[in-house]
Design brief:
Blueprint lengths: L4 E10 L2 E11 L4 E5 L6 H9 L6 E6 L2 E2 L5 H7 L1 E3 L12 H16 L5 H18 L15 H13 L5 E5 L7 H14 L4 E5 L3 H7 L2 E6 L2 E6 L1 H6 L1 H7 L11
Parallel strand pairs: 3-8, 3-9, 6-7, 7-8
Antiparallel strand pairs: 1-2, 1-4, 4-5, 9-10
Helix pairs in contact: 3-4, 3-5
Bound molecules: adenosine-5'-triphosphate (ATP) and magnesium ion.
Amino acid sequence: MAPILSTRELSRHFGGVAALNLVSLDIEDKQVRSIIGPNGAGKTTLINVITGRLEASAGQVIYQGQDITHKPVHERVRLGLCRTFQITSIFMGLTVFENVRIARQAHLGGSLKVFTPRHGLKRVNEDTERIIERVGLSDVAYQTASSLAHGDQRVLEVALALAGDPKVILLDEPAAGMSPTETEEISRLIRDLADEMAVVLVEHDMEVVMSISDTITVLHQGGVIAEGKPEEISQNQEVKDAYLGSEKWAPLVM
Ligand SMILES: Nc1ncnc2c1ncn2[C@@H]1O[C@H](COP(=O)(O)OP(=O)(O)OP(=O)(O)O)[C@@H](O)[C@H]1O
Ligand SMILES: [Mg+2]
């Protein structure tokens, strides 16, 4: 099957620094693709260039066979390329339900040809409930976002991305700062998402990465140094060397 998303020799420079250097990737549909690498490897830059937040310096981003390298962010979102929003984009004073409803309304308002207030609202409310149930936040649907545990706030970010009907969802360190239980829950959610869409996951928690990834790409100094299944990556000497001295990566340097 053709990949849903590819990068071809994608590069991004900041002054003299090559944050991304000739990165070519093929992302398959309905798979979890993790992007790992030491701090400063270029992982976030890759997500930013794929989603259009940053311009590529060279190379291409191909989505469903179409060159989207120069498309603006909102057009990529409309096509189904959604990343998690930063936590700051949650409306902290509103409930979970209200947050998701606003995101859903914004999405449908832009794409539904006929959006009558009466039918529209019913649909928006139903969709909102469905999305909240999907991510497991039903119990806290009517609590304000500010009162949620950190882990639930991060899950709410995922819900906001889901409101855009993504075909590819890109998650930048979704488990950061989570407790072990929260980490387990979001891991299960991410794995389940891949039944319906392609997942691109940037994550430092090696247990999460090793347990839920179909394929792992390792970035180091802006370039791809390895790609393969979790068991292949954990045995890869070049990968171990790249992480040497970095405590965070201890699980790999065994
Ligand atoms: N806006 C920017 N301006 C200048 N340099 C940048 C910018 N964004 C990233 N860089 C540099 O590009 C390189 C890659 O950074 P990036 O944030 O993509 O790494 P990362 O793999 O996400 O790291 P981390 O694991 O710490 O999140 C780093 O050397 C970083 O300092
Ligand atoms: Mg980063």
